[in-house]
What we know:
The chain has 258 residues and is of the alpha/beta class. 41% of the residues lie in helices and 17% in strands. It contains 9 helices and 8 strands. It has helices at residues 18-24, 40-52, 72-81, 103-123, 135-144, 161-169, 186-194, 224-235, 239-254, and strands at 2-7, 30-36, 56-60, 87-96, 127-132, 152-154, 173-176, 200-202. It has an 8-stranded parallel sheet. Helix 4 (103-123) runs parallel beside helix 5 (135-144) and helix 8 (224-235) packs across helix 9. The longest helix has 21 residues, at 103-123. The radius of gyration is 17 Å and the shape is globular.
Amino acid sequence: MIIDTHAHYDDDKFNEDRDEIINSLKEEGIDIVVNIGASLDSCKKTIELTAKYPFIYGALGVHPSDIGDLNEESFKWLSEAVDREKIVAVGEIGLDYYWCDDRDEQKRQREWFVRQINLAREKNLPIVVHSRDAAKDTLDIVKAQRAGEIGGIIHCFSYGKEMAKEYLDMDFFLGIGGVVTFNNAKKIKEVVEYTPIEKIVLETDCPYLAPVPFRGKRNSSLYLPYVVKEIANIKKISEQEVIDITRKNALTVYRINK
């Protein structure tokens, strides 16, 4: 059975058929999903999903693009919310400079990234790290905060082998999803080839980043077998080995007893 370590089933794109899709997952070989909070609203919806579905766990955090949500009062709510049952990580946290070239805003992203790392340390939870167009600053903060001691996943890993080595040396797992199936994803394919399968976890980031042949359409955990197949081809191992090992990895990083 496959574990989707990073999904967003709270997203509005699932409003019309959310229950139908989620209820179909087990029959299609997906038995655990970790829904990831990215804003305060999505964190609240994530908590609702974990209460409704026995096989959905949650991570709570505020994405760098949504840090406008954060102030002392809302951070206090977040700090208390991560204590809830079935919350297994602090995330999605990190840095995203893709849409942000304002230095003050980038500084604010860094400050809240550090605070959320510290929250994870306080709560003894792993972190789920988002990093886009901010490779050096993300790595510098992770190192300075000794986040390797906390552990976690570098979500939707998008950098090269040299950066992968930095995170692997700190014992992080790399999240690999639909992008690895893209024809132009040479860099990510090289990272998958380089990275020990024991340090890879499967993810969708759904409803985003659907794999080939569904690229550009709404993604879901149902498409993870296409990611499994591509990783198996790159690593020259069986698809079942990919499923079994990445499942063990996911249970380990999220400390889920299953």
